[in-house]
Amino acid sequence: MEIFIIVFLAFLGMIFGSFYACMGYRIPNKIPLTKPNSYCENCKKEIKWYMNIPVFSFLFLKGRCAYCNSKIDPLSFVVEIITSFLFIVFYIKYGFTVTFFISIVLISVLGVTMVSDFRYYYVSDRVVILGLISLIVLVYFEKDFMFYKIISGLILFALIFLIKIIGDKIFKKESLGGGDIKLLGLIGLALGFYPSLISLIISCSMTLVYYFLSKQEEKEIPFGPFLLLGALIVLYFIPSFNLF
Ligand SMILES: [Zn+2]
To answer: Where in the chain are the domains?
Structure first.
């Protein structure tokens, strides 16, 4: 039975991942989510449903458009794989518990933010707010942790907001994106205060590594995906470290 659930979650992750990536492209460009159907960025031809199957179509088409042979952005494919992988990993670790569903919220925001932040330096308010509402509902079921987590989210938000104001004054430009601050509020609510601080350290380290590995001179570094990835790493290891 277990194996059926895992296979099911693998496919569900691919389908959800595909939808998150689509949101990540469309929300920053103000394209409605339902219309038009997927089309090639280069030749604008509509992509038929059998060429739009998550993960498999990309592999089958070798990452190129079936009409004009131009390269398809591999980021969607990456999001589909990562979403599917994380769905499985968190299910195996936690089963269908509140923690599992908290991870699903973070994975979902990660999927959208990976595309929107890497491609457009954009973190969607609507997606973060949707995540916050889902988390408040989930945290309610954690009874003992409820107040701790809600206060944690608020404190982290306020703390980072303060750092941003000081940073903006010192560097005389936007030091932290507004989206990143909201994401930290979200992470505080998901993890609680101390685990969030640890996740922040992990995120900053990953961002630094990314900065040194990415050769092209980028004017901005997308911080959002690393914040969420750090949070997921901590969420995965929380029971082993007794972090609450
Ligand atoms: Zn094309």
So the answer is: 2-241
